Amino acid sequence: MTVATEREYGLFINGELVEPASGEVRELLEPATGSPLARAAMAGEADVDSAVAAARAAVDGPWGKTPATERSRLL
Q: What phi and psi, each to the nearest 5 degrees, are found at residue 26?
């Protein structure tokens, strides 16, 4: 029996869901049955570089200068 995969997980970089630069997506299987469970985007070097650059920009901006207690309250 073929089951359609309904869950898809992309990359969340800089506040947005983005496709992996390589376009690579992997099907995740249910371990007990081997049936499709979800599809997940596979991050490559370019995706990691983008995520790190976004994180650095966030830390260097107002968010990084906000005290940890205030950040925790906002989250």
A: -115, 140
Q: What is the total count of domains within the chain?
A: 1
Q: Which residues form the domain of 40? A: 7-64
Residue with tokens 């995520």: 51
Q: Is residue 33 part of a domain?
A: yes
In angstroms, the Cα distances linking 20 to 11, 25, 37, 44, 63 are 7, 8, 20, 7, 26
How far is the first Cα of the chain from the last one, in angstroms, to the nearest whole number? 43
pTM: 0.74
Residue 49 lies in a domain: yes
Residue type, 63: W
Contact (Cβ atoms closer than 8 angstroms) between residue 47 and residue 11: yes
> Could you list the mean pLDDT of each consecutive 10-residue stretch along the chain, which spans 75 residues?
71 96 95 94 98 96 93 93
AA identity, residue 12: F
